[in-house]
Amino acid sequence: MPRKFIYIINPISGTRTKKDLQLLIEKNTKEQDIPFQIFPSVASGDYGFLHSIIKEQKITDVVIAGGDGTASQVINSLMDCDVNFGIIPCGSGNGLALAAKIPKQPAKALAIVFNGKPVATDAFISTMHLPVCFVD
Fold it and tell me: Nearest CA to 67 among 6, 110, 13?
């Protein structure tokens, strides 16, 4: 099945602007010839609105560019969807990314999303189960 991505970018996580990150994501994903959409994070933390998009468009991967809070909200909202989750660490702490050995550099983290192997993962965020996360 061809891969299709949704990116969720938290524009206020961490201390850096996300403009360069979005340009990097767009450029690198186009180079991989992967169809994608980009959504900003939502203050409510409810990403249920993505369920129909994921199902109808056969989205295979949801990549979260943000910190632990953003990752927790997105995954809690979408964990019943049959998708792989990837993380581009952009928060101030990035505990999950650190524990999963995801590089802090966005280009390196994105390379893992493209080339890494999805594996089932238990995580400490909100004590929930992460169905799949990419590892190098």
Answer: 13
Residue 88 is which amino acid? I
Least confident window among 13-17, 27-31, 67-71, 82-86: 13-17
Predicted TM-score of the model (pTM) = 0.84
Give the residue ranges of DSSP H helices in 1-136: 19-31, 50-57, 68-78, 95-99, 106-115
Give the whole-angstrom CA distance, residue 21 versus residue 77: 24
User: Are the CB atoms for 97 and 106 separated by under 8 Å?
Assistant: no
Which amino acid would we find at residue 71? A
Distance CA 28, CA 67 (A): 21
Backbone angles phi, psi at 126, to 5 degrees: 50, 25
Angle at 14 between CA 13 and CA 17, to 5 degrees: 85
Q: What is the pLDDT of residues 92-130, one digit of tens each?
A: 677 677 667 778 888 999 998 998 887 776 654 433 334
Residue 43: how many CB atoms within 10 A of its CB? 8
Domain annotation for the chain: domains and CATH numbers: 5-135 (3.40.50.10330)
